[in-house]
Every structure is written in C-alpha cells, then in structure tokens.
Amino acid sequence: MKKKQKQHFTGKKWIAALVVVVLILAAIYYYIALPAINIHNPELWKFVLFLAVIIFALYALPKTTFTGDRRHPVNFSGNYKTKTFKFLASLVVVIAAAYFVGTLLSSPVINASKYQKLMKIEKSEFTKDIDQISYDQIPLLDKSSAEILGERKMGSLVDLASQFEVADEYSQINYKNNPVRVTPLRYADLVKWFTNKKAGIPAYIKIDMATQQTELVRLKEGMKYTPYDHFGRYLYRHLRFKYPTYMFDDINFEINEEGTPYWVCSVKKYNIGLFGGQTIGRVVLCNAITGECKDYKVEDTPKWVDRVYSADMLVNLYNYYGTLKHGFINSILGQKDCLTTTNGYNYLAINDDVWVYTGVTSITSDQSNVGFVLMNQRTMETKYYEIEGAIEDSAMTSAEGKVQNLGYKATFPLLLNIDAEPTYFMALKDASGLVKKYAMVNVHNYQIVATGDTVNDCEASYRSLIQTIGRAARNVSGTVIMYADDITDAMHKAIDETNRRRDIQIAYNKEHGIDPKPLIKKISDVNDMLAKEDVDTQTLLGTGYRNEGKAGNSHLGVPATSKEESDRRHEEILKAGLPAQDLADLIRQLSEQMHAAAEQLQFELAARLRDEIRDLKKELRQMTEASK
Questions:
Q1: Which of 51, 312, 513, 606 sits most deeply, having the most CB atoms within 10 A of its CB?
Q2: Strand 171-175 with 178-187, pairing
Q3: Please, are residues 353 and 173 in contact by the beta-carbon 8 Å criterion?
Q4: Could you give the count of Cα atoms lying within 13 Å of 326 in the half-sphere of its Cβ?
Q5: Parallel, antiparallel, or unpaired for β 382-385 and 121-123?
Q6: Crossing angle of the two packed helices 578-599 and 523-541, in degrees rounded to 10
Q7: Strand partners, 339
C-alpha cells in the first residue's frame, strides 16, 4: 500500500490563511479599541505597523531555523529570496519610516512659527470685559464641592440609590444665563445595567454654582446612549460606527435651553504635518436619549453649547504662543520674551459663555504674573490683560495664612472685578473638603487679604480695605495723595467716580441747607468699645484670659465673671482639644495687639483687629459646643 502523503499549504494558501486570521484579529480589535480610520491618527499607524510585523513574522518564522553559527546564526531557508518575503519586509520598513518622518515633520522643533500662530491673541482692558457682579452671582462651586453635594442629593433618593450612582462629569455650563454644574447618573454595575437598560438612565443632577441649590432633573424618557452603556449603545462605539474617520477629543455632558441632555463631541483637527498642531475642526452633538447625532462646523455650533475646546488644549495652545515667539531653540536656551501660563486654571461665566482663566508669567521667573488670559471654550477667542500682580499660588498662601490657626486650604482662585480692582476670590476648606470661609486677595498687593464666613461678609471686609479714597471723600476735610509713575485706568476711574459722588453730595447739601461736620468721637468711646470686647473675651476664655486692667469693665454695668464660671469655661476649652487651645492663644495675642494699637491712637487698626477677634471667637464657640 502506498503511504498517504501529508498535505502542505502552498505559498498562496498560507498567505490566504494569514489574511483571514489578520482580518479576524483586526475586526475584534476595531470593535473593542474603536480606532479612527484616519491618516492623522497615530494609534492607527501603530496598529498597522503591528499588523505588518505580525504578518511578516508568521510568514517567515515557520521556515526559519537558528544554526548556532556565529557568522550566520539565522537560516531563512531561502525565504529572503522570495518576492513575498521582500515585499513584507519592505512594507514594515516603509510604514515605520513614514511614521517616524511624519512625527518629525509634525513637531514644534521644525515648525515653531506655525505652532506659535495656532492661537490668535487680542489685548484688552480688564474693567471693560469683566463686569463687577453681585456677591450672590459669584460661581462659588468647584468640582470637588459639587461632588459632595451630588452624593448628598443621591443619598436622599431611595428609589434610585440602589440602582444608580452619580457620574463624575460635573460639567460647568451656562444654563439660562446662570452658571451651573451638570452630571448624569450612571448604572451602579453591570447587573444594574441589564436590569435597567430598557428604561435607560432616568435623570441628571443640576447644581447652581452661586446658590449651591442641587436639583435632580427626572426625564420623561431615559438616557440610552452614554459612556456607561454597553454594546451598540456604548457612546464611543455609537459614534465610531456613525463617523469612522472622526478623531474625537474629550466628550462633554451638557443640556440645551430646554433641559435635554446632549453629549458634545469635539472632533480633532491636525494643522501641522500628520500629527501636529491639534485644534478642533468639527462638533458632533449626540442626543443622550435618542442617540440622534448632528454634525457641525465649529463656527456653526449652537450658542447653547459651552465647551468645544477643552481647558487643557487652550492652555497648551497659549503656551505655544508664549514660548515660541523667537523659535524653538530660544524656548529651551535663551528664553527671551518667553511667557507661560501658571500651574492652574479656573472658569468664568461671561455673556453666556464659559471662559478659561489663568495667569501668565515669565518663564524665567514665576514669582509674579505679568498678566492674565481668558480663553472662550466655544470659539477659542482669546484675550490678554496686561496686569502685573501676585501669582495664584502666592494669593492662596496669603489667604491660608490669614486662617493658619484653623488649617484651612484655599481652592484655586477666580478672577473678579471688585471696584475696578482685579481680585482673587477663593473658598477656604477644612480637611474634609467642606467650605468654611471665603477669601479675597488683591492681585496688585497680595498682602491685602479679607476673609468672611459668607461671601457678603468677605466682600464687605475687602471693600473696607481697598476703599481708602472713598473713606477720605466722605469726610469734609478728607485728602488722598496717590504715588505712581503713571496714572492707570483704575486710578482714573477711582478719581472720576469719587469726584462724581462728591459733586452729587455737595449739590444735595446746598439744596437742603446741610452744613456737614465731621463726627468727633472721644477716646473714651473707643476705650468703651475695647472694654466691651474684653468682657465678651473674658466670658468666653474664663481663667485663660485676665484683661480687666487694660480697659476697665466695672463702669459698663456688666457683672464680673465668677471664679467658678471662669474655671468652667477654661476647662471647656481644654476639653475641646489642641486646635481650640491654639485658637484661644491667638485671641489673647490679637487682644494685646488691639489694645496696643488703641494706645498708639491707631483706632482703625484696633477696629480691624476687633473684627478679626470676633470671627475667631465665633470659631472657638463652635469648637467648644461640638466637644460637649
């Protein structure tokens, strides 16, 4: 009998089998990784190169042996002479070379001037563009505080808490001219998705950034196209199958003016070479309920959309503008005229748009800002304000120093216009992330710091520190002397406004026959004020405070605190722990400074110290009450 001969794959059959295997692997990869089929997509180039290497290896390795010979360690059995081998090897080399050259030609090393011109900058005036807003309109809420409110709201919803949780989007948008943060709910886990996928995600959370009012917005029909769904309803897969060539940047959750939830999907555009100069070319709006998508050019994007450009992209584009003015080499070595953004940013709501705010500093010296920049997240419009002052980190340190005894930490500041003065505004949080106080710091002089338990108190305290002209103008013999090399816009406005108000007051006085006279207080009145403060301090601190001799309290009609009561108060402070004891020590020190200022006739300073002492005593009372 003849032996059956083993069947061998011919060259063509082997290649056909390879192609089938590669196509199957490619399909699985595409369904999972969802790469954009676009020549500008670096990930696609890497994948194609990987496939080429795999095909080459599968073709060459079965007929390859290792000889052990030092001179010829590998034997390809004549494969290297075939056209297929040469073609596959050449394909790997060509793809790798093209990717390398494309990366090089796209880099700022040889395209510095093109990168520098990606963003157009307009110089503008601070007080012209940034209106003064009321304290009840300041967007106080940062993302971490919003997360606390969102979780608190979700915990109160018994019907939803077991099936859903709050997503971590918390997008800042302008909704009907009010700054709000919005975030959808998401499925708690895969099992909850199977249980609830037919109805979809039933609601999203909306938080007013000024009032911190938190609302759960229930939808008539649930959201079925989200990043938290699976298979065909998975948002990124849904978008990829509709737009196979689009390279999407960050996808943002927003609501339109009717409250309908959308995903704002920005499409990347590369302006330099294959992979360089990234901006945004188009915007796709995906209805989170129906999955319906609409494709827009950036300039045609609906006005209710707030975020097309991410904050990080805008900051990177400005850094290209600031550092590459004199070429790439100068940005590394000489660094002449190089400017860069500071190490953080925040958001401002202006004219129903959201603008990214950050400071600008010299790349060779980061101790102070040379100006600020505002960048529109919908249009990429960018404005630069040449205002010298403290960097944000210095302002945050000043605010924290004001309450160092309490250990509060400052959030990254907002930039506000307070009486034509650029002002940093920030929240002060305790170790658990809860907002305890607010602070305002003058940009020009970060030693001018005001704090308060409420925004209104903080603003009032800050105004009292910066309104020196106003105080003098209210006195019949008041005079203000200003020292400066040049009269700035802020000085012009302050002088003009003071003269305008004084003219109105003089006309009113003449019309009504009023002869204004300054209020004259006796020094004894000031001593009475200090003495009343001492009575309250002694009542609070007990034996920890003995200051009757400074201002004398007997004439005020306030009974002296008994020894037993004083000892009891002192024991309460000791029981409250080390922070309370430190706070009591600080109150004693400031009380000494208050009396010293009064003795030197520095009554305004004494009044400021009195206000600060009152704030500290309020904190101490809260601590002692909590320890009972």
A1: 606
A2: antiparallel
A3: no
A4: 11
A5: parallel
A6: 170
A7: 362
Higher pLDDT, 226 or 594: 226
Strand order from edge to edge, sheet including 293-297? 248-255, 261-272, 276-287, 293-297
The per-residue pLDDT for range 137-164, each reduced to its tens digit, is: 677 788 888 999 999 999 888 889 889 9
**Cβ count near 231 (within 10 Å):** 9
Query: What is the token pair recorded at 398?
Result: 């000043």
SS3 350: strand
**Residue range 386-416, pLDDT digits in tens:** 988 888 888 899 899 888 888 899 999 988 8
Predicted local distance difference test score (pLDDT) of residue 536? 78
The span from the CA of 478 to the CA of 496, in Å, is 16
Q: For residue 600, give both structure tokens.
A: 């030197």
Q: Return the half-sphere exposure (C-beta side, CA atoms, 13 A cut-off) of residue 251.
A: 19
Q: What is the pLDDT of residue 572?
A: 61
- Rg of the Cα trace of the chain? 34
* Angstrom distances, CA of residue 543 to CA of 127, 561, 567, 579, 586: 52, 10, 6, 18, 15
DSSP state of 188: S
- Most distant CA pair in the chain, distance: 138
Q: What is the DSSP letter of 6?
A: P
Phi and psi at residue 512, in whole multiples of 5°?
-110, 10
> Are the C-beta atoms of 171 and 146 separated by less than 8 Å?
no
Tens digits of residue pLDDT in 178-234: 889 999 999 999 999 999 999 999 999 999 988 889 999 999 999 999 999 999 999
Structural element, H or E, at residue 192: helix 190-196
Which pair of structure tokens corresponds to residue 336? 């002449």
Residue 30: count of CB within 10 angstroms of its CB: 14
Query: Which own/partner contact pairs does 175-180 have at CB distance under 8 Å and 24+ positions apart?
Result: 175/206, 175/255, 175/257, 176/257, 177/352, 178/208, 178/209, 178/210, 179/139, 179/208, 179/209, 179/210, 179/349, 179/354, 180/206, 180/207, 180/208, 180/209
Q: List CB contacts of 257: < 8 A, sequence separation 6 or more.
A: 175, 176, 304
Name the residue among 403, 408, 370, 405 with its Cα closest to residue 389: 370
Q: Under a CB-based contact definition with an 8 Å cutoff, are residues 152 and 214 in contact?
A: yes
Backbone angles phi, psi at 41, to 5 degrees: -90, 110
Neighbour count for residue 131 (Cβ, 10 Å): 10
What pTM did the predictor assign?
0.72
Each residue of 457-492: pLDDT tens digit? 888 888 877 766 655 555 666 666 666 667 766 567
Mark 288-322 as b/e (b = at least 16 C-beta within 10 Å).
Answer: bbebebeeeebeebeebbbbbbbbebbbbbbbbbb
